[in-house]
Amino acid sequence: PRCQNKVCFLISLHYIDSKCCPFLMASGGEGPSSSPQRHTNRLAKERSPYLLQHAHNPVDWYPWGQEAFDKAKNEDKPIFLSVGYSTCHWCHVMERESFEDEEIGKILSDNFVCIKLDREERPDVDKVYMTFVQATSGGGGWPMSVWLTPELRPFIGGTYFPPRDHARRPGLKTVLTRIMEQWQNNRPALESSGERILEALKKGTAVAANPGESPPLAPDVANRCFQQLAHSYEEEYGGFRDAPKFPTPVNLMFLMSYWSVNRSTSEGVEALQMALHTLRMMALGGIHDHVAQGFHRYSTDSSWHVPHFEKMLYDQAQLAVAYITASQVSGEQLFADVAKDILLYVTRDLSDKSGGFYSAEDADSVPASGGPEKREGAFCVWTATEVRELLPDVVEGATGSATQADIFMHHYGVKVQGNVAPEQDPHGELQGQNVLIVRYSVELTAAHFGISVEKVNELLASARGKMAEVRKSRPRPHLDTKMLGSWNGLMLSAYARVGAVLGDKALLERAAQAGNFLKEHLWDAEQQTILRSCYRGDEMEVQQISPPISGFLDDYAFIICGLLDLYEATLQTEWLQWAEELQLRQDELFLDDQGGGYFSSDPSDNTVLLQLKEDQDGAEPSGNSVSASNLLRLSHYTGRQEWLQRSQQLLAAFTDRLTRVPIALPEMVRTLMAQHYTLKQIVICGQRDAPDTASLLATINSLFLPHKVLMLTDGDADSFLCQRLPVLSSMSQQDGVATAYVCQDFTCSLPVTDPQELRRLLLDGTTETQAE
User: Fold this and answer.
1) Enclosing H/E stretch for 631
2) Which helix H or strand E contains 554, and what residues bound it?
């Protein structure tokens, strides 16, 4: 459902995929936005970029909250809940067509209490009603349109509606009229039907372990997960299913972890090949922005060529980790370069001066040629004429007096008529345009033009630099400057992990800056609560709304994971201490003591009708999957055995899902494997900034070791770690040199001081051991 191009007309229960149905686009006319602002509603006082986009609709919008609920009860009116996010293409379409329409605005305002919700601010509310829409219509996506009773119980819902009837599909005006009639004449049936569905959903979405139940067997679950992924794998271009094709970093990380414990089997080799081929083809494809870095949301075709052009922070974060992991596994420089390339984009375009990260860049923008109409991809695409005018110089020594443009166009598949097939462009927005995609290796391009590989690399880099300058002069897409706890946690992990592998101090400093941002702006020390979001103000200052939105499970889980990664990258214990504090607070707020695992939101919030435990690793990993790993890691850092047990109980709660469809939870399967194969504790005895310590750390960070925790002890018996793990006090440097101990199942290797010996020990475990 992350794909907002799913169009569902609930009245006819007809569900289609709009990307595959060009005729449908006629109903989504891309006309100019309405001119001067004749209306202002109460959303003008909000900070969410999505809500502010609707502040001048002729609709009496309310934000989600008590004022709207009271109005619905006092006036006994149904609620119209409209949910989306600021970079959602079809949300923009529905706003232009329906919410800027005076007639539809009046019908909505006179007969309904209209609530506009940013799904990224309130994922808990979004999830409840999306579960309802998916259950009743067979599909989902954004914008989501749901009608509720004054008690917030849904009774009908869908996604995008055109403004008026189109062919045999009812428009929003018709739907509103029918609902008003039913509310007047058939209200008890509407309410009881919604109530029945809600009760069924409460039962159907329950996730709990039976008392004393153990997690399922890790090798069996991992093998099944691999088989399910292999079945859906697309061999030519990598990825899973044909089109649309999503990056799915959770799948790729699972495949590399699966390989790490099955290196000698054909399945293990195949898993690694699937992951690396997918990452390679994505890096070459149009989904990768070759001029300004970063990755677009997904590809509309099977070859990763024509993307949906929005860029999401959570994609950049997870893909940076996937690419740096691929570089550890394969030693290929390409993967490390792409990881750096992603973080270059995030540092430049998605970073706030406070240290936080913005949420997203839109797909649509005004073309450089002008006009009031925004077009998808306008910021990113090129005509052949633009390329020729920008790169006219003849390249010395090239076959046939080729210009820089000739070489660039050959390499990146630029064509005079444009390189986007009509079926990939149902709006006709990309006619004559080119989405850059690497068509040949540098070696083949060099051979084709009779010049050296070095010369080609130099020419292509120079061309991309010139094109990046041109792009700076184009009208930019909308930037969603909301800063979210969960996504900032994911990004913190990315900077920490990429920085550690590359030994890049600037990246590690940026990671620490992100950690400080989270503590300063998204942590309420008085209430001991993580906050969901903060916002960029008009003066570029960080702003908060009143009251702020309290954090959800994902916010705690992703930030804790980021802090653990930041500790392993910097070995500064302040981050480990805060991770421990946050885990204790997460347990207080979200833990299901009886059934195991965590609820997605605070169970005490009575405006959220379903207490859900997210059971899918999708565009983002689920909070429970990440929590299972956090608990396991923290149990090794703190000696808290109850956290190990809690992690096992969580995995047991998801036994049914893990056993039947592990492909839905690849991130959780990774933790199940980590528990089965047990974590290695790698203890470095040394001074944090000393060169001999750095040599050992560089060896560790060069390897993909999914089942490890890394810690440093400098001989201070009063340190955070020594207080929690007294055994560390018995470990010391050998002959005054930084020394590594590798422990597993409470048995440690003999001390190692040589980086190469440590590498051998970590890869194959060959050394004598001594009991702790």
Assistant:
1) helix 623-638
2) helix 553-570
CA 248 to chain centre: 9
Residue 42 one-letter amino acid: R
Strand residue runs (E) in 98-152? 113-118, 144-148
Phi, psi angles (nearest 5°) of residue 483? -115, 115
Mean pLDDT for the stretch of residues 41-57:
96
CA torsion through residues 732, 735, 741, 747, sign: negative
Mean predicted confidence (pLDDT) in 462-474: 97
**DSSP H stretches of helix in 234-377:** 249-261, 266-284, 313-330, 333-349
Structure tokens at 381: 């695409």
- For the sheet with 154-158, list strands across it: 61-63, 113-118, 79-84, 144-148, 154-158
Helix (H, G, I), strand (E, B) or coil at 152: coil
8 A C-beta contact, residue 383 and residue 433: yes
Encoding tokens for residue 567? 């500790």
404-411 helix and 453-472 helix, angle to the nearest 10 degrees: 90
Question: What DSSP character marks residue 698?
Answer: H
Task: Report the number of secondary-structure helices (H) and strands (E) in the chain.
Answer: 27, 24
Task: Say if CB 724 and CB 709 are below 8 A apart.
Answer: no
Please state, as a whole number, how many other Cβ atoms lie within 10 Å of the Cβ of residue 608.
Answer: 19
Record the pTM.
Answer: 0.93
**Please, which residues bridge with residue 311 across strands?**
361
* Owner of token pair 């435990």: 613
pLDDT recorded at residue 36: 62
DSSP 765: -
Q: How is residue 703 annotated by DSSP? A: S
> Where do we find the tokens 């001066």?
353
Rounded Cα distance, 159 and 82, in Å: 9
Tokens found for residue 694: 């750095």
Following DSSP, what letter does each residue of 299-311 receive, concatenated? ESSTTS-SEE--E
Peptide bond preceding 547 in cis form (omega within 30 of 0): yes
Q: What local confidence, expressed as pLDDT, does residue 168 receive?
A: 79
Specify whether the CB–CB gap between 63 and 115 falls below 8 A: yes
| Dist. CA 318–CA 250, nearest whole Å | 8
Cα–Cα dist 722/712, whole Å: 10
Note the pLDDT tens digit of each residue in 326-341: 999 999 999 999 999 9
- Asked whether 704 and 256 are in contact (CB, 8 A), the reply is yes
Question: What is the C-alpha separation between 117 and 119, in angstroms, rounded?
Answer: 6
For the chain, give the number of residues: 772
292, pLDDT greater than 50: yes
Please provide the DSSP assignment of 27-79 as one string: GS--PPPP-S-----GGGG---HHHHTTTTSSS-EEESSHHHHHHHHHHT--E
pLDDT of 19 higher than 80: no
Residues 731-771: tens digit of each pLDDT: 999 999 999 999 987 789 999 999 999 999 999 864 444 43
pLDDT at 349 over 60: yes
Q: How far apart are CA 617 and CA 218, in angstroms?
A: 17
pLDDT digits (tens, 9 = 90+) for 543-577: 999 999 999 999 999 999 999 999 999 999 999 99
Reported as a pLDDT band with limits 50, 70 and 90, residue 10 is: very low
Mean pLDDT, range 255-276, rounded to an integer = 97
Contact 158, 90 (CB under 8 A): no
Q: Which two tokens stand for residue 561?
A: 């994971």
